[in-house]
Amino acid sequence: MIPLRDTQPSFSPPVVTIALIVVNVVIFLFQASLDRYSLNHFIYTYGVVPDRLVPSTLVTSMFLHGGWLHLIGNMWFLWIYGDNVEDVLGHGKYFLFYLLTGVAAALVHVAFNPYSRIPTIGASGAIAGVMGAYLIKFPHSRILTLVPIFFVFTTIEVPAVLILAYWFVIQIVSGVGNLAYSNLSQGGVAWFAHAGGFLAGMLLIALLRTRPRYHRRHDLHW
Q1: Whose C-alpha in 59, 135, 136, 154 is 20 to 30 A from the C-alpha of 206?
Q2: Residue 151 — left, alpha, or beta (φ > 0 → left; ψ -120 to 50 → alpha)?
Q3: How far apart are CA 166 and CA 220, in angstroms?
Q4: pLDDT score for 206
Q5: Which CATH number describes the domain made up of 2-214?
Q6: Residue 172, exposed/middle/buried by CB under 10 A (0-12, 13-18, 19+)?
Q7: Nearest to 93, CA basis, from 133, 140, 46, 139
């Protein structure tokens, strides 16, 4: 299933979401300009390496990506869900929320892989936090989704609560299945980081005050 857009309107321009996308793209273009040796050094310097954790990399790592598909997938999900969460929190609080959930996701990854020397990069943990917040604030929204039916792709509207819960379960199941492999010698997807970011987003959005117009729900349509 490929989410295309949500049905929940925003009431303010998503300036922080757009800025985050631009910054991530610009940094990735810089990465793409580096030779292999310089790129590896850059990733090891600014990515999260649990075995020699540098606190600043908990933030810098979330602005690096491993390839075009990694970047496009993350920015696509951020665009779909980020504008509404930014609308709920306001621009400044949303930016702080984004950073905090990204840091929380990275710390969960470190907790599960304390001796790993493989650098972890990507905005996935922070974006998972945005998705967790979206689930709390807009469970009745629908996501226009591209799905294959008998080898033909069609679009249907799927309740946000279903598609986000399904995504979360996939992260947990994949993370548990990946525990059998040694992260000291193998890279891969930081499944538990995604799950940790998602749960952090759900918790943090419940603690933060929303804009006055969201004291009453705006997503009660089905």
Answers
A1: 59
A2: left
A3: 21
A4: 87
A5: 1.20.1540.10
A6: middle
A7: 133
